[in-house]
Amino acid sequence: LARAWQIKSEKEFLFEHDTALEDSNTRTKFEVKVTRLEENAIVVVVRNVSERYRRFEAEKRFVFETTARQKDAEANRFTRHEVKNGLLGAIEICGNIREQLAGDFNGLQKDFDDMNDDSEVPENSLSGRMENMAELDRTLHEVLDIVLAETMARDVIHEMYVPRMERMDINHILAQTRGFKANGGQFSVICNPSPLPILKFDQGLFKCIHGNAIRNAIKYGQPGGKITTEATYNAESGELEMKVINLPGPGHEKLVAMGSRAGELVFSHGTRLHKDSDMGKRSYSAGDGAWIIRKCATILGGSVEISFEEERTIFMFRAPAQVHDTPSPGHETFHLPPGVWGIGIDDSKIQRKLLRRFFHHAGVHESRQIILGQKKEEISGFVDFVVDFVNRHPGDRFFVIADENLEMDDGISEHHETISGSECIKQIRNTLDSEQEEQLLALVRSANDSTQDLALYNSRAHGYMPKVPLRGTSVRETVSPLWEARFPPENESQGDDSDGSFSRITSIENLRDLTLISPVELLAELEQIDSLCIRNRDKNDQWHVLWDKLHQLKGDLKSVNVDDKFSTTINLIESLRGASHPANFMSMWLRIRSDVVAFLSQNN
User: Are 402 and 380 in contact (CB under 8 A)?
Assistant: First the structure.
């Protein structure tokens, strides 16, 4: 009131006044409106506007945090894009080297034939180099999975992740022990039914849940103890259930004594209950694994829980799941009809090589492949080139693949301009007339796959293709539905393969490209078992080591068992199962080895 009275202005005056209430230490903000009526009279209206200011501060903080998150997301997206491209390039280089080494297959076979009983496989031998390459390839794939998992975890935490329901071979994921710091003998998998059906599921979320459960079982369970995974799919209820069971580890009795409260606290944000934890609050990367997998399960419409029993710990995950519609058999051997032009563009040398292989797997003849992006002019003139090329080839069909981020770097200037591949496709489609556009299938290829990105790509192009390690059959399974949706199949043949270039698709290409297990890796596994056979010929106490390797070989053969080529071999390996070294092992092993070698020789 004193401040209001001292105002000499004849007009209305507005000011703010802060005060602290006696019953609390919080500041209260008042808005004071003063109106002078005459020399000795004023009207003062006082309003408490604290709530308005609190809302304003909250909105300002929200805008600031949202902007910061968007900038962080952009930076992370760029980093992920560059790292993913680098890894894919390294995987491609690794694959090329493996193919070159596989060309010396006859030399490897000769090495084995000349080996005497006391010789050991030298590390610098062909098989040793192939094994190193196989290990490098597996490492690159593991790093790629980590990059993708970290990105997914960030989106899950911020509740921005949208599940991607796609084909998932749960049998292959459960059987995979690479990447876990434990020996293969620790793990056992029980499936009901066996094998489990191919599901339509978010593979990234499932790998996150399964991987965290296995790593926790290794870390907190009995050191070296058995870890059992039980997976069940109920076709009637459409529910997937997975249990990971491990033996008790240090401090287990305290968790049992806590009862159901322990099972709830495990999934709390930033809390650890085990002996090696200080119970402190930690970031999601160091203590919030269980909290994250609960979020993953919630996104899938499922649940996770854990129980600490006297003799074991049981982690359980449940979620609704659908059986994936099996693609028609024609998808495996699908190839584009003769006469299709393949036009691709990418600013990366490695990715341009991948585009050539992609077109080859899809069925585009090498003479009708056009790969651009090496020069700055090819990128800046891409739209004009494609439009002109279509005009010069009336009646032909065109399969166009464009990388989303095309960087024009002339190697001289410091300024790098980036052109959007999807925007180029949009311009191409808008420039062509309706009849020409109907002869075009244009796809965007990118490492960015957020919901917003996919919506943008699909609005500009006919579809989207992720940047993933190249597998021949997966290429055809990807292209087939897109091509047939764009160009519905008619009752005519796709043409004869007079040169036989596609007659071997379901054999060697499935083997080389469909799975992570290449012919080179299979040869390396054979070599490892050969070495164990020589060193431990009469050592029955080492049989479990040899059986672990045989069991791994059996699993890998199952994953590449195209047209049941390896069914007899798999049964032979299974017949060796037992607690001790079979008397006829060497003769059985020679038969197994001969079968695998014969198949690889025919398709190499």
Answer: no
135 pLDDT above the threshold of 70: no
C-alpha to C-alpha distance for 308 and 287, rounded to whole angstroms: 19
Q: Do 208 and 201 form a contact (C-beta atoms < 8 A)?
A: no
Convert the pLDDT of each residue in 323-344 to its tens digit. 987 555 555 567 888 889 999 9
Instruction: Tell me the percentage of the chain whose pLDDT exceeds 70.
Output: 66
Angle 241-574-563 from CA coordinates, rounded to 5°: 80
Asked if 463 contacts 509 with a C-beta cutoff of 8 angstroms, the reply is no
**Phi, psi (deg, nearest 5) at residue 471:** -130, 130
Question: What's the mean pLDDT when you consider all of the chain?
Answer: 76
Residues 6 or more apart in contact with residue 244 via CB below 8 angstroms: 210, 213, 214, 217, 227, 228, 229, 314, 315
Tokens of 54: 């609190």
Query: Residue 49 is encoded by which pair of tokens?
Result: 């506007």
Give the burial class of 441: count Cβ atoms within 10 A of its Cβ; 0-12 exposed, 13-18 middle, 19 or more buried: buried
**With a threshold of 0.85, does the pTM exceed it?**
no
Q: Kindly state the helix (H) or strand (E) to which residue 407 belongs, with its residue range.
A: strand 405-408
